[in-house]
Design brief:
binds guanosine-5'-monophosphate, HIT family, subunit A
Length: about 120
Amino acid sequence: MTFDYDPQNIFARILRGEIPNKTVFESEHALAFHDIHPQAPVHVLVIPRGSYVSLDHFARDATPAEQVGFFAAVAEVCRIVNVGDGFRAIANSREHGRQEVPHFHLHILGGTQLGIMLPR
Ligand code: 5GP
């Protein structure tokens, strides 16, 4: 499998500072910011700084330091936004996953009782 990364995708532009964002947390390896169209009271996107298209790309090719740094950022986001009663993490991935932005991101959704995982 080859992953072709588009450096003009919107999250790449956010990482370069070309588009503003409402930052929740940032570190050497990750950036977390509020989704522009929140679908729950808490809706934060966590992205790696590296150029990875999707979760499977990140899981396969990111360095251990990048992977540890990414999940440390997820933990920080959960602490900062206070999802103590639980949350959902979603990584829409490529075409069948209906991924819109081709830079790997994890949605952190919470702050309310969430509905069923998938419509039946
Ligand atoms: P996907 O469908 O790729 O999993 O989700 C992409 C998410 O990015 C959507 O929830 C969408 O609202 C969010 N998004 C798209 N453009 C922007 C933007 O410019 N800024 C922010 N903060 N979120 C964005």
